[in-house]
Amino acid sequence: MLLLEVIDASANVKEFLTLAKENLKDMIRTVNITDQTLDDLNTLSDFSYAWEIMHEFVPDMHERIRNDPTAVKLLRAAFLKLTSMLDVPLVRITEAKSPDTLSVAEYYSGELVAFLRMVMEVIPIIVFSILKDVITLQAKGMTAVPVRIELIALKDYAQLEQRAVLAKRTHEIGIFTEGILAMEKTLLGVIQVDPRQILKDGISKHLVDQISRALHLCLAFDTKPVRGKDPKSAVEGPLVLLRDTLDGFRKSFEYVQDYISMYGLKMWQEQFTRIVAFNTEQECNRFTRRKILPESSQYQDTYSFTIVYSSTSRRFFTTR
After folding, report:
1. Domain limits of the chain?
2. For 62-77, how does the pLDDT look when each residue is reduced to its tens digit (9 = 90+)?
3. Which of 197, 202, 193 lies closest to 111, judged by CA?
4. How many CA within 13 A on the CB side of residue 74?
5. Which long-range contacts link 15-23 to residues 24+ away (Cβ below 8 Å)?
6. What is the pTM of this model?
């Protein structure tokens, strides 16, 4: 009796007992599931018929994510339902114990992952559109704060309005990245998809695009001589413009790296090095007999998965 009184007086013990009670109820419900129930669930959740029309809803999905980043959690259920499309081509192949089971499953799983990336690609695009405002604000709207300042000059360096806008833009970036990170690791067919890796791949892709555009637009040299004009200015001008553009972009990308939960500076250096190496390799084609096509370059970045099949357990495993 005394033990029951002690348990009743302890809030922690009562909470643990309630949690254990709920877990036991779930276990009982799970044990009582029959094969007929599983068959009914498979029939009701069959979503293979919608594979062709799902592409028409991609713009609507993008608009939903723009308005509500947390909607990514809801899309996870749709992606899991789409895995039922694997049952149609694999059911007969599996029954026949064909050695082509792995290749067919890998193909359709790759299609599912490609569709998932197409839907989620809107988040890096939005992040970079917001990042442009951060770049403009840091480059033109804010002045650098010195290491030491006098107390009387603190108000001049506060820049409250600019910092309020900066905080708002940073918060928007954080919300959108939280939306995709809210999706847990999901098994699509035979491929396990990590949302963090998808976000990293998407940001890397658009980072390469932004750096390449800056290099293309800024490195435009005027080769025609102009009387009375220093020839060095025709070279220094574009280089200075490129330096300022990339420096502002790099600082802003480094600033938001904590809010996208990634090593922004490391990613910047890796992608910038890859761009320079790729362009150098392509320029060397002029002087070599064996040409290297852009799509065959070692600096091209592709998404690759290694599929391993265990014949004993009849399960698929994936490593990235």
Report:
1. 54-280+296-319
2. 888 888 777 777 777 7
3. 193
4. 8
5. none
6. 0.67
